[in-house]
Write the structure tokens for this entry.
Amino acid sequence: MRRTSKFRFGLVSISVALLGCSGADDPSEVGAGYQDQEFSTTPGEPNHEEITASALSFLKPEIVIALQAANVATDVQFFLVNANHFDDCNFTGGSQVVRASEAEAVAALAPDQAPVEGDVLAIRAFGRALHALQDFYAHTNWIELGGETLVDRSLGAFPVLGAYSTIPSTGFVVVQGPKPPSAALSRDEAASYPKSAVVSVKLGGPRHAKARSAGLISGTVDYEPGNFCPASVAMTHEELNKDKSSLVERSQQYEAAKTLAILQTEHEWCRLRALASAAWGPAGAARLDAWVAAGAIAPTCAAEP
Ligand SMILES: [Zn+2]
């Protein structure tokens, strides 16, 4: 999800620090034509902010605000990087952004890191991971394929989604790059939405003799370099995105994408806490528990059996 409208930076000092030295803090610095891109929403819908606040409502308000700022900073700092938004069928890149960003957050929570600086770095990295994962549900056909569960509910490092691998939670096959020679891809372009967004994959070969699976794609964005969507089944970002409620024919899918984004965001808190515990022991978990608001109850974090 992106907006061309004003970004609300500088809410509190921690938010300013989140932008770091490499980030362009004025959208006009990103490049000519930025304001003409099609993500213009008037008025803008603060979806990433709402998803983050709703999922992490148990955190201290200043932490939520800082995470929101870090999250939406992705749309400026990584405007042209499809991996950060799960665009262009770059699932491997997107999953690596999540995995690497969460690893960066965990490293910043090391007991020997200065508490405030460490927290700022951790929030910046975690917010970046959350942005990508929230976009996952809005930019892919996960919802149109009937995906009702999360892409991953483990408590380990976020899995790398390999090209033409099968996602365990749903059985969807990751459509990314040229199809394997024995595979067949199809999509009924003439069908009405949401059927038009259903991709079918027949992997072929002895192990998959007759199996036909749902194929996971994401929308193509032509100003982001690198398009991994096979032309025969590709859909544009305009055709597929569920970024805002005003896309009337996709309003149901928008709600579904937002619901899963909230659940995934809440789950990522659990993953981050588990990863911090694994790396640093009780001290790692304690660093994150200090983000929880007084009297608030953090979710009970249990991995899916
Ligand atoms: Zn985005």
Q: What stands out?
A: The longest strand covers residues 212-216. The CA atoms of residues 183 and 203 lie 4 Å apart. Helices lie at 13-19, 47-55, 61-77, 91-108, 115-139, 237-240, 251-280, 282-289. Residues 251-280 form the longest helix (30 residues).
